[in-house]
Structure formats: C-alpha cells, structure tokens
Amino acid sequence: MTSEGFASIRVAIVGGGITGTALALGLQKRGVGFTLYERYPASTEIGAGLGFSPNAERALKVINPELDRVHKQLVPQTHVEEYFCWVDGYRTNEVKARTYIGVDAFKGGRRSDFLDEWSKLVSKDNVKYNKELKFLVHKDDGKVMLQFKDGSVEEADVVIGCDGIHSRVRRLILGDTNPASYACYTNKYCFRALAPMEKARAVLGAERTTVDGKVANRFMLTGPNAHFHSYPVAQGQFLNILLVISDPNPWHTEDGKHTTSGSKGEALRAVKDWHPNARAIAELLPDELQKWALFDMYENPAPYYYRDSVAIAGDAAHASGPHLGSGAGFGIEDALVLATALEAVNTRLGVHGQKTKVKLCHNALAAYNNVRYDRTQWLIGATRETCKLLHWQDENVGSDFGKFVPEINKRFHKIWDYDIDEMVKETLREFERLGSKLPN
User: Fold this and answer.
1) Catalytically annotated residue among 58, 171, 192, 372
2) With 70 as the cut, is the pLDDT of residue 250 above it?
3) Which among 194, 253, 363, 370 counts the fewest CB atoms within 10 Å?
C-alpha cells in the first residue's frame, strides 16, 4: 500500500540485466510493487569488464544508495586521478594525448560481479526465473497480461522491457515486420577478454597495466580500421582487453546469433602491421575466444519507447556500440527516470484515486519517453562517429591527434557532465504537465 492507503501499481520488469536490476532496486526503494521476470534459471553473465561513467555513478546513488554501496565495495576507492590515454598504436606506441576523467571515476569491474551482488539486494519474492516472454495482451481494464513460453500468465499495470538488444518487448510494441524491431550490424566486431594481471604486466610493463601513485590510466590504442582499449578491473586482478575491428562484410551466422567462435590468430592478423606493443596486447588474448558482432539501433531507430502501459529501456530501446563506454550507464539513467515517474503515479493515486490509474501509468511512460528519447538517440550516432575517429576513418581527422582529441572530448563530456538531479526534476515536471488535465 502507498502512504495514502491506496494499493500500489504493479510493474512487470522483463529482463534481469543491468537496467532491469537497477530499475527493480529503484522501485523497491520507492515502495512501488514489481516483479522481475528473467528468462534464464540464474545469472548467465560472462566475465567481461564493465565500467560506469561518472554520470552513471551519480545516478546509482539516486536510484538506490545500496547500488552505490555495492559498486564501491566491488571497486574500492583509490583516490587517484583517472585518464584516457590516446596512443598511436599503429606507428609509434606513443601516448599522444590524455583526457582527464576524474578522481575515482569510471571504475571498472566484471559485469557478472556487479549483477551477482546487485541481484542479492532484490527481494527474492519479487523475482521469477525461467520466464521467457511470448505475448502481451492489453486488457479492457487497462492491465497488461504477460504470457510466457512455459504457459504461465501474469498481470501488471505497467510492463517495462529491459530484455536487451534482441528485445521481445520491442517487437511486441513496434511489430514483427517493423525494421525498427531489429538491430543492424555496424560493420564492426570485437574480441574481449580478461588477462591475468601478472601475465599482462610481464608483457606490457607496469606503466601500461597498473595504477601509478595518484594516477590511473586507461589506454586506447588507435589505428587504421581497429582499436584497443585496456584497463585494470576486479581490484587489479585482471586487465580488461577490448579489440574492435572494422569489417567490410555483412554479418552472417548459421544460427542467426551475434556471436561466433573466433581465434587469437584472427586478432593478430587484424593488427599484423601495427606497432609491436599492439601485437603484444593481442597475444594476451586466449587462443580460442568469442567473436562479438557489434549491432546497434542507428539505421532503424525505435520511433518511440512506449505504447500505452508498455515501455522499453536500456539496450531494448537504444542499443549502441561500446565505443563511448555508456550503454550500461544510459540504461541506469533510464532506470532512474522510470523509477521516478512510476513513484509519482503512486503519489498521484492519493489525489486522483484508482479510476485514473491507467491514465497516470500512461503519463509516466510518456514522461519517460519525452525525457530520455533525444539523449539516448544522440548516443547511438555519437558512438558510431567515435568509432570512425578511433579507426582513423573520419575524412576530416584521420590520424591527426590534434584534431582527434577535441572531437572525442566533446562527446565524452556531453555524457559525463549530464545533470542527473535536473533529469529527475524534468521527469517530474513532464509527468505533472501531462497530468494537468486530469480531474481532481
């Protein structure tokens, strides 16, 4: 029950990744009823590295302080300055420029560690596993019926699809024949791995692998048609390595998946003419590894993120590449806006009563859409532009670091400098604006 004595709305969250789990904890903190439906029997996250940009770290604190507490527990504060170091990985291996990130900003860890620990904070009574969504049915009373592949049926006032780039909820909102229901290949693929730090340090040296005194560096090796990104994670136990490669060919796998088997040999061939240090990083990759195609929503963007009482968030709404390090962070921003708007529905029920609940739910999702759409769509295009810069494919910049740095910095700072508190205020203003014609 809400503080006014009215029954809380019930929210169904489809998908238990970063965005879905953050939203669940945001609703839990605000007393909004929810159930999190996860298609898998338990966490199946791989051990890839993940860092949260400064804007996302600020949002964690507002969604639920426990998210921030666990984040800091997994990536303890070192009180050091952090930088992106831009390296000519092709010709000289020189650090050509640095971009200041902040003190204890963009802290990295293993994605699986974050999800495992955050999931423990969600009430077990509010999570159901082995629930793969099949259909949604909009009922006459405004509720939404969820039909799962195991034959079970559930109901909710609001459904939020946090089910990733292959989102079933997105297809149900937009239609199976709509091109915007499906992500497109960016003509980039990547290899990613966690190298034991002792091994990485022996190959690359302490300067490129560890925190040095009061400075921590993330190294970005740029060059023709590829780039590397490396940084310590898991309290310095591993070096997270990402190698992104441009690909002129269409993506095709027999099973239609975005991953296929790859090899260290393929990575080495992509950088065979690069500086020996770059090739040494590629040598740290395991002999056999997954090859990840990078898809996004750039070519056929979702025209909106909600319909009636159903919405999509995170990668389900606006999947982008990893090149600005902000996909997960924007999902966390989404979660904060949704938690704010859905809490406002409960608050307004005390004024307007249950008869207006359906309209209030619609208004909450409309407010979320209106606040988030432009920023998230910008990210998709900016991420593509960034990869062109990193791969020396921008005709106006090429390999000129004097031109490269201002271009890359303005994109990063549009992400990092975002006013999270103002975003929350804007959400509430938009919700109130949309509800101004409701009867008292």
Assistant:
1) 192
2) yes
3) 253
